[in-house]
Design a protein that fits this description.
Function: Acetyltransferase implicated in the O-acetylation of Nod factors.
Structural class: alpha/beta
Number of domains: 1
Keywords: Acyltransferase, Nodulation, Repeat, Transferase
Strand content: 25-35%
Shape: globular
Pfam family, one: Mac
Distance between the termini: 52 Å
Largest sheet: 7 strands, mixed
CATH class: Mainly Beta
Family: Belongs to the transferase hexapeptide repeat family.
CATH topology: UDP N-Acetylglucosamine Acyltransferase, domain 1
Protein name: Nodulation protein L
């Protein structure tokens, strides 16, 4: 039995966006309009809205609007996670953020990826690579986390850094591309 394009996407395989994925994105866009209009609502009401769309929303997790994502249903937030204003998560596959992780404003997390070969890319296929962010991580404003990256528990990502490879537990990285930096 052949897989649907959505099943391929969720498995991290090459897939071609189709009507089912388009409908999922349209539903997410409608939800984002509601969520991003909720800035003045109490945190508890915004938390309830997050639970409508995201795969997992830990206790006291906060995302300050505006917020942007592709699907939402691939995002898992641990307890006491905080995302500041204007974050973007391209969640074609799972993006996991561990307990007590704090993410500054305008951080971008990309699980969406594209083939490197121009001919394959021209065919319209794409794929995703999961992003895993551990517990007690601090990510400074404007940082970009690329597809397939794992960030270990207690790591620090400097503001404006572009994280192109895995970051070990307790490690501090800064720059573009992000490189280890002594604490």
């Amino acid at each position: 039995m052949s897989k649907t394009e959505k099943q391929k996407m969720l498995a991290g395989e090459l897939y071609r966006p189709d009507a089912e994925l388009g409908a999922d994105q349209a539903a997410t866009k409608a939800w984002l309009v509601r969520y991003n209009a909720a800035l003045a609502l109490p945190v508890s009401q915004r938390h309830a809205l997050l639970r409508e769309r995201l795969a997992q929303v830990g206790n006291e997790a906060v995302i300050r609007p505006p917020f942007f994502c592709d699907y939402g249903y691939n995002i898992r937030l641990g307890d006491n996670v905080f995302l500041n204003f204007n974050c973007v998560i391209l969640d074609v596959v799972e993006v996991t953020i561990g307990d007590r992780t704090q993410i500054g404003p305008a951080v971008q997390i990309y699980a969406a990826d594209h083939p490197r070969d121009a001919e394959t890319r021209r065919s319209g296929v794409e794929f995703g690579r999961p992003v895993r962010i551990g517990s007690d991580v601090w990510i400074g404003g404007g940082a970009i986390i690329l597809p397939g990256v794992t960030i270990g528990d207690g790591a620090v990502i400097g503001a404006g850094s572009v994280v192109t490879r895995d970051v070990g537990a307790g490690q501090t990285v800064t720059g573009n591309p992000a490189r280890p930096h002594p604490r």
